[in-house]
Design goal:
With about 750 residues, this protein is mostly helical. Among the domains are: about 60 residues; about 35 residues, no CATH class; about 120 residues; about 140 residues, Orthogonal Bundle (Lysozyme), CATH 1.10.530.10. It has 37 helices and 2 strands. The chain has a two-stranded antiparallel ribbon. Helix 14 runs antiparallel to helix 15, helix 15 runs antiparallel to helix 16 and helix 34 packs across helix 35.
Length: about 750
């Protein structure tokens, strides 16, 4: 009888068997016969011997060759290569054992495959394919008649599966194995577990019927213990079957339950009310529950905060009034009685406005206060970083909507302390600050710029806010304090736009480059965190795709820098420049900013590496351009990937649109076809010619030229007309496209890096 296995995808997965499960009332008649079958000899997994760790590179070629053979179905070669060495106590030994077992199974050497997988299990498997490996081991045990061992392995999958689907399938397969063992007690436990934990499963009803038959229960639900019935209700609600959950709740006799189970029953009912949209009823139930159990208290607080947030959302929606108005949207010429006339075109346009009556304001304020209190109680009890981040974001939004600036700053600062990359509400606050500056509401602008630089940890955002805070001081008649900030902004090893702007307003560097160096992140080459050691070792021997699989399985807030460093190195080994740069930016938010000295030197060098440097320098010189500016633009556009392409159709090193490239080539008399844009030489020549043309049109203004390169000349000319009288720094911040603002700032910073050596050092 084959066991069911969950469907997988990916070339590194073994071929799986089709689904099958036998759960029926008639099974109870088979149990005595199965129980009388002599159990097979128990095969104990071998204990691995700890030996000195061999160098990774020594066996790298055999490891790569074995994997390559495995992927093309050459089991003989794969087994020969993978069995010729061992990585001993290294993490990568797990992968070698898994691949070796797959090759042995491919060659029908089931005993050897079982031995390899048992060794893998005995050493404590932590690889991404752990559940697949254990599932295969359970199948081999069962096929060899080792039913007890198969049951043990399936139990490990059931209790430690990374995804619920694997746990569910393992539970069903374990029922089949327990049946063969003649173990009615364990069979009953698994049937109950399946019905309680996975009530939406297609075999849950059969499992309930089996449990009822084994226990002699008068109804199927009564075959479950009270706690299992409550768990089943919770899972039904989570699956969206609230009516069925409520019906099963009503069938549970609360008076027969212990106080603890009565509390859990109440929690399940509150959850059902929440999913039904009855938030007030749900909160009333929750308030009556005792909070003398840590696990129960955590779930009560989370559900109460969820209810309060939903009620606030409803109150906010009710605070707006909506209507439809007819508006003139144009005209058209029509022929009436043989004569042409103009008719106005009207269209119904949805409108909405905030209600301003006292009752609405009171209701909204009350809902905010309720949500704030519930979320603060939840935050106090939360320990996991992900949960705290979610709650802090909600509290920050409430504080901003309520106009509580002190609370908003405190919430954002707490978020930044957990994750320095956090940008929740940053754009909204910046927009308000900039509007205040443009309308000359200087006290408001100064307060908002000041809060941004204090609360958020993103280096670029802090320097931006710091500069405009100084501009407020200068405009308000505090030139000395403004000058001090300009000096501070100018005192960097490599210039960003705010160092340039600060010097233009009189700032001077007050420290030298030596005193500006920062301490690098501690990331020794040979000491990744334990949960990423396997990924790191795979990357070191050139198995980049497999390394990325392990990184994605192990990624967490605690190992983020190392995880993205490994991803970046794996992409770099394959020449995937864009993917490498994206990984470094995600792992190291300081990169590409004046704070990037905190990034380890090898990653800065990787980020700023220019594969076509000589070519770009030659093309820049031919057009009289600064080579550092051209290389900075290429880094921003394509990270040096000659084959890069955008969804809009931009192609190559300098990401030229075919229409733009065709026009530039026509003016220069260069033979052109769109398919040639991936040729580095042609792309660089056309791109530098185009940049030279833009600089000429913009009279040498690099900000205008770079903005035109990114957003188009027409847009920039329109923005200039709308910003007449604005200074250069004001124009840059007034660009409507956030992407274009960031683009100009990054290219100018990258130019400074390339001017000082091009390695970020």
């Amino acid at each position: 009888m084959p066991m069911e296995t969950p469907a997988r995808s990916g070339s590194d997965r073994p071929r799986r068997r089709g689904p099958a499960i036998v759960i029926a009332i008639a099974l109870t008649h088979v149990l005595p016969a199965a129980a009388g079958t002599a159990p097979p000899v128990r095969l104990s997994p071998p204990t691995p011997v700890v030996r000195p760790l061999p160098a990774l590179e020594r066996h790298a070629e055999a490891m790569r060759d074995g994997f390559a053979a495995l992927t093309v179905g050459d089991g003989v070669t794969a087994q020969r290569k993978l069995s010729s060495f061992s990585y001993g106590g290294r993490s990568i030994e797990q992968v070698r054992l898994w691949w070796l077992a797959r090759a042995q199974d491919m060659n029908h050497e089931t005993t050897a495959a079982r031995h390899s997988l048992a060794t893998l299990r005995a050493r404590g498997a932590a690889l991404a394919a752990r559940d697949d490996a254990f599932d295969k081991l359970a199948t081999l045990y069962r096929d060899g008649g080792y039913w007890s061992e198969a049951a043990e392995v399936l139990a490990e999958i059931r209790d430690g599966a990374r995804v619920p689907a694997d746990a569910r399938v393992a539970m069903r397969n374990e029922m089949t194995v327990r049946l063969a063992l003649g173990d009615p007690g364990a069979l009953l436990a698994r049937a109950r577990g399946l019905a309680a934990r996975f009530p939406a499963d297609e075999h849950a009803a059969e499992a309930l019927a089996l449990a009822a038959s084994l226990t002699g229960a008068s109804t199927t639900l009564k075959a479950l213990a009270p706690e299992e019935r409550i768990e089943r209700v919770w899972q039904l609600v989570a699956a969206g079957d609230t009516p069925r959950a409520v019906a099963e709740l009503d069938s549970i006799a609360a008076g027969e339950l212990s106080p603890r189970l009565r509390a859990k029953l109440g929690l399940a009912r509150a959850f059902a009310m929440r999913r039904a949209g009855r938030h007030a009823d749900s909160r009333r139930i929750l308030r009556a529950l005792p909070l003398d159990d840590d696990e129960l208290e955590a779930r009560v607080l989370e559900l109460d905060a969820d209810n309060a947030s939903a009620m606030l959302e409803a109150a906010e929606a009710a605070s707006w009034r909506s209507w439809t108005a007819k508006e003139k949207v144009g005209t058209r010429r029509v022929r009436v009685k043989g004569r042409w006339t103009t008719r106005t075109i009207y269209r119904s346009v949805p409108k909405k406005a905030k209600k301003t009556d006292a009752k609405t304001r009171r209701q909204l304020a009350a809902a905010r206060a309720e949500a704030r209190v519930a979320l603060e109680r939840l935050l106090e009890a939360q320990e996991d970083a992900a949960g705290r981040k979610t709650t802090l974001r909600q509290l920050a939004t409430i504080a901003r909507d309520a106009g509580d600036r002190d609370a908003l700053e405190a919430r954002i600062a707490a978020l930044a302390a957990i994750d320095p990359r956090e940008d929740h509400l940053l754009q909204e606050e910046w927009n308000d600050a900039w509007t205040a500056w443009r309308t000359r509401k200087l006290p408001s602008a100064r307060e908002r710029f000041g809060m941004i630089q204090r609360a958020w940890a993103l280096p670029a955002a802090r320097r931006q806010a710091r500069y405009w805070y100084a501009r407020c001081l200068e405009r308000e008649g505090e030139p000395n304090e403004a000058r001090r900030i300009y000096d501070e902004l100018a005192s960097v090893r490599r210039d960003d736009v705010y160092a340039i702007f600060a010097r233009a307003r009189g700032g001077t560097a007050v420290t030298n480059a030596a005193t500006q160096s920062m301490e690098e992140s501690a990331m020794p080459d040979d000491a990744p965190p334990p949960d990423l050691s396997l990924a790191w070792e795979l990357a070191q021997i050139g198995l980049s795709g497999e390394a990325r699989t392990e990184v994605r399985a192990a990624l967490s807030d605690g190992n983020r820098r190392w995880a993205y460093a490994i991803l970046a190195e794996s992409h770099s080994r394959e020449g995937a420049q864009l993917l490498m740069a994206n990984a470094l930016r995600r792992g190291f938010p300081e990169i590409g900013t004046v704070d990037e000295d905190r990034v380890p030197a090898r990653f800065r060098a990787m980020y700023y590496d220019t594969p076509h440097r000589a070519l770009l320098e030659k093309s820049a010189a031919a057009q009289g351009l600064d080579p550092a500016l051209v290389m900075g633009l290429v880094l921003q556009e394509s990270s040096g990937d000659a084959g890069a392409g955008s969804r809009a159709g931009a192609t190559g090193l300098m990401q030229l649109m075919p229409s733009t490239a065709e026009e530039v080539s026509r003016k220069a008399g260069i033979s052109f076809h769109a398919s040639r844009l991936t040729e580095p030489e042609l792309n660089a020549e056309l791109g530098t010619r185009y940049l030279r043309e833009l600089l000429g049109l913009m009279r040498g203004d690099e900000i205008l030229a770079l903005a035109s390169y990114n957003a188009g000349i027409g847009n920039v000319q329109r923005w200039r007309r709308a910003s007449r009288g604005a200074s250069g720094d004001e124009f840059l911040e007034s660009i409507p496209y956030q992407e274009t603002r960031g683009y100009v700032k990054r290219v100018l910073y990258y130019r400074s890096v390339y001017r000082t050596g091009g390695t970020g050092s």
